[in-house]
Amino acid sequence: MNKSSLKLTRKIQLLVDLPTKEERMEAISKLYQWQNRCYRAANLIVSHLYVQEMIKDFFYLSEGIKYKLADEKKDDSGILNRSRINTTYRMISDRFKGEIPTNILSCLNGTLLITFKQNSTYYYKGERSLQNFRRDMAFPFSSEGITRLSYNVEKRAFCFRLFSIPMKTYLGKDFTDKRILMERLVKGEIKLCTSHIKLKNGKIFWLPVFEIEKDSHSLKPELIAEASLSLEYPIVVKTGKKKLTIGSKEEFLYRRLAIQSARKRAQSGVAFSKSGHGRKRKIKAVNKFAKTESNYVSHRLHVYSKRLIDFCIKHQTGTLILLNQEDKVRIAKEEKFVLRNWSYYELITKIKYKADKAGIELIID
Fold first, then answer.
1. Entry pTM
2. Which of 306, 293, 284 is nearest to 341 (CA)?
3. Which domains does the chain carry?
4. pLDDT beyond 80 at 55
5. What is the pLDDT of residues 98-113, one digit of tens each?
6. Parallel, antiparallel, or unpaired: how do β-strands 242-246 and 209-213 relate?
7. What is the reported pLDDT for 145?
8. Which pLDDT does position 1 carry in this prediction?
9. Which pLDDT tens digit goes with each residue over 61-98?
């Protein structure tokens, strides 16, 4: 059964809403402390979960040893003095008490336990190593961590408190739906799920997860649209006698190759570039062209996938089939040029997301 709701993740920059520089720096240092404790707690949690899962394989233990991962109060064979999810939470809570909000630890513990259970089979077979977390990881928190959310007309920003820290959003020239989603959140029209805070290059980014209702369209599941993806024509779709070619090789590929050529020329001139800040200054132009290519491809694929879904909605097709994709992927893997420039998986991802939002069933043949 298809869900009637959809979860959207956005990236919003935050600013500490305090009057003096000293207060702002103190608040930012507190965020970095939370990030550090979260990073340490995450590594401890997965280590403890792995030991708990593999303890039954410690064959050198005596036969009288009990190893069932259950609460001893609820099961005679249990070896735990509390529930399994509470073992790791209590461990990190006791270790980092007073250094980080417990809401963050609770969300982190629950998320890692779910992920661990999904991958436990691979861990047991030795097909996957344990997760290893970086120091700059984003830390999670539930909607309870945000209070007093409102729009401040004077500051022209959405203001709220992240636990005890006053925050305000910085949307800049927003050409996306971030402002609309925030306005709906303030009005209570949509729900805020477990989100994350990411600290990068001295900036604070909020990764909110919004749960919204799917778009309602008068679609007919019995009507089928067939689409084909290729490098020659990014998308060709037809339903009945209606056919649409979306994009072209000249539009997509040649422009991308032009950006790549400009990047290669910039790489050739790196040795003669102006210095001043070492390597970072010399490869500034190279990084600029790399970002230009990435932005161009992402934007074009967004346009292509949107036109495809709009075509399906216009003709009320409730089912979309992508034809012969396995053969095309196999051919692409054999040709390095095609694999490098096709961006197949990114296009598929965007089509899946937009089809799910519109309520269209997607079938990949």
1. 0.76
2. 293
3. 5-17+140-213 (no CATH), 25-125 (no CATH), 220-364 (3.30.420)
4. no
5. 899 999 999 999 999 9
6. unpaired
7. 92
8. 40
9. 555 555 555 555 566 555 555 566 778 888 899 899 88
